[in-house]
Amino acid sequence: MTETSSGSVARGGKRPRKGLKMKRIFTTPGVHPYDEIAWERRDVVMTNWRDGSINFEQRGVEFPEFWSVNAANIVTTKYFRGAVGTPQREWSLKQLVDRVVGVYTRTGLEHGYFASEEDAEIFDHELKHALVHQVFAFNSPVWFNVGTQSPQQVSACFILSVDDQMESILEWYKEEGVIFKGGSGSGVNLSRIRSSKELLSSGGTASGPVSFMRGADASAGTIKSGGATRRAAKMVVLDVDHPDIEEFIETKAREEDKVRALRDAGFDMDLGGKDIVSVQYQNANNSVRVSEEFMRAVGKGDAFGLRARLTGEVIETVDARELFRKMAKAAWECADPGVQYDDTINDWHTTPETGRITASNPCSEYVHLDNSSCNLASINLLKFLNDDNSFDIAGFVKLTELIITAMDISITFADFPTEKIGETTRAYRQLGIGYANLGALLMATGHAYDSDGGRAVAGAITSLMTGVSYRRSAELAGVVGPYDGYARNAEPHKRVMRKHAAANDDLRTVGTVDAQIHAEATRQWTECLKTGEKNGYRNAQASLLAPTGTIGLMMDCDTTGIEPDLALVKFKKLVGGGSMQIVNQTIPRALRQLHYQQEQIEAIVEYIAEHGHVVDAPSLRPEHYEVFDCAMGERAIAPMGHVRMMAAAQPFLSGAISKTVNLPESATIDDIEQVYMEGWKLGLKALAVYRDNCKVGQPLSVGGTKSESKTAEAEPEPEVKVIEVNRPTRRRMPNQRPSTTTRFTVGGAKGYMTASSYPDDGLGEVFLKMSKQGSTLAGVMDAFSVAISIGLQYGVPLETYMSKFVNMRFEPAGMTDDPDIRMATSVMDYIFRRLALDHLPYDERAALGIFSMAERAAQQRGEDPSALQESVDREALAQSAPIEERPKPEAVKELTLESHQRFTADAPLCMTCGTKMRPAGSCYVCEGCGSTSGCS
Q1: Catalytic pick from 334, 363, 557, 694?
Q2: What Å distances lie between residue 544 and 180, 361, 514, 646, 863, CA to CA?
């Protein structure tokens, strides 16, 4: 435990003051933490996803041996400062960590945080050890800015405000632009703006907030965050009693209809296409701020009043259930809007005397005062799992103390994008400590994510983290004083502390691990209340759960934030380039925890590697299947499982949780209503949903995927088909046969495919060319073509090849120039999809989830795609036409399916490297380069 004592540091030299007495956690006196690590030199070379050219190269960078290739690549490309190739360029993780920690240590010493220089040195060593060992990480702005010539911006999350005045609205546009330029995101509530149903002082009718959203959206779409390639991240909130609420709810759903119409008319709706700019409201997440009054009216079926902004009088009455239904319907159609539970948020508000909480950051985890910001840091939970699967409680407590101390110091030296944000943040000192790898921790300890045991562990850890954080905040208040706004908010702040402690008392444990953590959490909350009563608190906010996108990759985390694992099989980058498919390393540990023998573990892991799931794995007991449930796949966690996990953690968080509740494509509007209603009843602060395939322009659906899986499982192997005759015979192709040549591009790699058919019927020959004659690739493709052609001539059905090669994943992968197949996970994936479209009837392709552009358009219109009378010859002719004469590709936010791993359907391509991004909370992260679509 860190103590406070009188030290030699004096304020203005007038009187001695207290300072923190630091104790070592991980380090050894007299030994620098770097000297306890084995370091190695590596080369980081990043290639362009389109043409294979090198777009980043730095050789001889230095990292610990245990850092993965991916983590080292991301830190080198994103966080090292200085021009590449110059002496000023950072080349070692030591330099990066020294640059950042040096500023923290010097500032803490100068401002009286430490009792002595020796304590400052301990702080310095402990922080460096934790960072280089990937035990925790600060959010990205810290790594970008601290210790450089740039403004020392440390916050990733911002909340703005806008009033019902044109000057304020224009100032909102400007402030957002400044924040986006700095690489961060912001949120705003537009409910103060008069509705389009109210009058102006001049006598005219007001434009309403939705009209002003258009201007802000256009501004955000033109500003690339940090001067790089990632688009701006923003949140727009509107209160449920605003007279324009229905228009707000339906904005993005209407735009989806526009995308469909323009795409079907042949306009360029590709990502970055010249016509996509006509689609509005796409740069923001939208959320409706619902009240207790409204939710109760929904439950009772009562009427609900929409109120004028200036007078507060009811100017329109609506059916609460119908309005709630419209919210759920819009979310069912396009995943927006989400909901924020206003009364719950403000019931846990520590500073209500200063103002209400009206908005959030783009990912919804930071909810506090207008014109404020929050800097984030996340703990890697898996680092505290001991070899015997016990949780290192003492180490976790001490690390949390260290992080809170460092984060508060950062506010002292930080710069801010606007003066208003700077004033509020310095006065209230909001922090956002959180964690990552919860899903991996639960699996490793044999807990199902959707189980009482899993929720008990999550609740206990979260309670302990926040209890320690506020106890340390109270200790800091005794050293350097409480936050400026504490005096006027002392009673409500202490009331919220008591609410957290009471929630901890109500937590019910079910196992040894969570019981031990809970016991320590109870002790910490008791100490927190006692110390806070004496000293007050240094921080108005302490904790939240962020998506941990880029920093999660930096820490080599298997799972982000509060999320479960995405899939059981992943792809690991290798030194020197390339990647390999691996089974999650957490699985063998979980199996050992469940008392399986080594031979059984090896067999189960081998089965998972082949099938991507645990169903029917040898020796694995069905009652243990749930331990290996993931966000997606054969045994996807039920939507309410996600909601219940959020509810387990929420009472112990100052802020909210960045997380999207995924629903299957078959989910109904009623299902989304239930999720929104249960989120309110369970005490969540914010909630967003995503229904699989709800976005426009997705060639495959979950239903198609399941059909494909069943088809593949039920399809006999080629050998089984062959033995139906005693001696298979080869049906050779005639000298003259009809053929189609298709020129294609997959992820920037160009190639040609010639497919020849028998004169009567059926594909019999395929030839592929992707490189110069004599090259290794050309030889491999020739050999592959011969093998496929001979198989076809011996009677192997084309659909058998489909089941084996469709969704195969390797580079090059990504966008294609084929309007029917806009995304491909590999060249093989594209080739066999194209062959299926050209040579298989609709019914057989539908079972595999393979449709042409015209068939997808028919589905969107509610028509029967099988009724389309497009012949194979006409489709082949369209494909053989020059590229410039083909229909334009559609929007690229699509569902890409891997053989053992599926990403969320709406996950966009990374604008930096072209890789399909994956979910991270309610945002997305690129595993290739670490770019995110929100907080990092």
Answers
A1: 363
A2: 22, 12, 20, 12, 46
Report the alpha-carbon distance of residue 44 to residue 72 in Å, rounded: 8
Measured distance between the N- and C-terminal CA atoms of the chain, rounded to whole angstroms: 30
Tokens representing residue 611 in the block? 């099938």
Selection from 544, 182, 563, 558 nearest residue 378 by Cα: 544
Q: Mean pLDDT in runs of 10 for the chain (936 residues)?
A: 44 57 94 97 80 82 95 94 95 98 98 96 98 97 94 94 94 88 85 91 81 78 48 86 96 80 71 65 87 98 96 96 97 94 98 98 96 97 95 98 98 96 98 97 97 98 98 98 98 98 97 97 98 98 94 92 89 61 85 96 93 94 96 89 98 96 91 98 96 58 36 36 53 84 85 86 85 72 87 86 83 82 86 88 78 77 63 42 38 31 52 68 75 70
Give the pLDDT confidence score for residue 523 in this predicted structure. Answer: 98
283 is catalytic: no
Q: 2 to each of 24, 172, 559, 564, 780, how far by Cα in Å?
A: 10, 43, 31, 33, 64
Q: From the candidates 73, 283, 361, 584, which is the catalytic residue? A: 361
361: annotated active-site residue:
yes
In degrees, rounded to 5, the angle at the alpha carbon of residue 159 between the alpha carbons of residues 154 and 161 is 140
Closest CA to 660 of 335, 328, 379: 335
Give residues with Cβ within 8 angstroms of 661, minimum separation 6.
Answer: 639, 642, 643, 675, 687, 688, 689, 690
Q: Look at residue 764 and give its three-state secondary structure.
A: strand
Q: What is the per-residue pLDDT for 724?
A: 39
Q: Look at residue 49 in the predicted model and tell me its pLDDT.
A: 56
The reported pLDDT for the residue numbered 935 is 65
Residue 639: its pLDDT value, please? 95
Please name the residues in contact with 483: beta carbons below 8 A apart, sequence gap of 6 or more. 427, 428, 429, 477, 537, 538, 539, 540
- Interacting residues of 803 by C-beta distance below 8 A, sequence separation 6+: 708, 711, 712, 715, 848
* Predicted local confidence at residue 878, as pLDDT: 43
pLDDT for res 780:
85
Bridge partners for 413 per DSSP: none
Which residue is listed with tokens 């630091």? 22
Full 3-state SS string of 412-440? HHCCCCCHHHHHHHHHHCCEEEEEECHHH
Amino acid 704 reads G
Q: Could you tell me the two tokens for 406? A: 């460092």
**Structure token pair of residue 852:** 């042409």
Distance CA 778, CA 784 (A): 10
363 is catalytic: yes
Structure confidence at residue 126 (pLDDT): 98
List beta partners, residue 54.
Answer: 47
- Asked if residues 359 and 185 have their Cβ atoms less than 8 Å apart, the reply is no
Please give the structure tokens belonging to residue 213: 């959203």
> Which pLDDT score, from 0 to 100, does residue 503 have?
98
Beta strands in 502-659 (DSSP E): 569-573, 579-583
Q: Which of 198, 247, 365, 708 is catalytic?
A: 365
SS3 8: strand
Show contacts of 851-860: CB within 8 Å, 24+ apart.
Answer: 851/699, 851/820, 852/820, 853/819, 853/820, 853/887, 853/890, 856/699, 857/260, 857/263, 857/264, 860/260, 860/264, 860/696
